[in-house]
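User: Sequence in, structure out. Go.
Assistant: Echoing your sequence, followed by the structure tokens.
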Amino acid sequence: MKHGANRLLVVALPLLVVGFGWGLATLFELRFASGDLYPAYSTLRADPMGSKALFDGLADVRGIEARRFYGLPDHIGDGRDTTLFVIGASVGAPEFVDPAEAKELEDFVRGGGRLVMSFRPIMTSPGAFRRELMELGENAFDPANQGKKKDSAAKRKPGKSPPPKPAKQDANVDESAEKSDAKSGEKSEARKRPPRRRSLLGDERRLRAVSLYERWGFKRAFRDLPESADRDPESVNVTRKDAPPDFPPLLTWHTAVHFKELTNAWRVLYARDADPVLIERPLGKGTVVVCADAWPFSNEALRSERRPALLAWFAGANRVMLFDETHHGIEAHPGVAAMLRRYNLHGLLGALLLLALLHIWRNAVHFVPPLHEETAGGAGAVLGKDSASGFVNLLRRSIPRVELIHTCFAEWKKSCGHQPKNQRRAAEMQGALDSGFAKIGGTAHPVDAYRELSRIATEQK
């Protein structure tokens, strides 16, 4: 019965481990399947705010290779036969670009690449939003308070104010009033002082940074979206300008961003009234496309307002579609495993694993049976090859033959002579040694002398 229970445990334990691992992997897969852990407009995000549908759709087209770009180690390449999508970038990102990155982008386009850049939607002008935050209080620029104060301002109806709290009656009314007056005075002084703003980059990088707006010949601008009766921003329609006739005449737009002061190299495809929102220009052998709104690339847009002709124009005639994820903060940090995969060192890893297994096997299994050591009194004992012969050699070098019996008797008295029953035996042994027995036993017959002393020690009287 016990043997059967052990066998059941041996079979059940691996099954439990495999089941636990499968369940854990399923939970992680369900959690990451929606992709809402990733930033908005990332191609890894599968909810309406992501762009995974566009990536998967292009990947399914025959003859097109869709890849994500996570930064190092291969960079974006020379741009030949490649379209680079930068979806959902910050509208302020092109203002401060490292010169090396700007040169890399321009080399990519001049080499024949197509750069498609779009920005995250902004519902209102940043200047108006900043003024609204300043009216709310002195801590409006604290990042921890911006979200809360924006929500409270949106929910507050015009012309209404929260009801005043009833005053508490206590004995220290005057003192509390003075404290409140002092605090209000400090707050008013703080409002008068200009708030300290953090620079987007460090001073050194800020001095070295370049603006893509200036290098490419256009500027950004803002125009607030209209608001509904509940003061919620509403989308607008942008009209087709210098665009192919198969493009839709109107597009739904969800941002306040537009462009101005364009150079003659730019072509305006769509505009909000007279404000350009979708522009294109040649640069070397390639082209640059700048879209003020990233919403047309989102999963929601591909579901509700699919524009295949416009999306095909964005992609161009290139074979490789490269989607940048580094501007979302998703970057690759290759480790040892990634380097092994990159340089095809799978065989080396397998060989090292095989050597490790052989080393473990060599230490665990003896190919030649070990020699069994024989006891000291067994037949065939060789002098100096076991512990008994070593002990004899040690005694011969340390104790003279004449003193051997006296040494044995002295050691016996140390260990057993203090017992009352052995005191008489010790006296008898000492008498035998003093009577001249030691001469016979110590010199001529040590074995016989030892037997005589042993007889006296074990004699029952």
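User: And one key feature?
Assistant: Confidence is low (pLDDT under 50) at residues 133-179, 186-203, 374-378.
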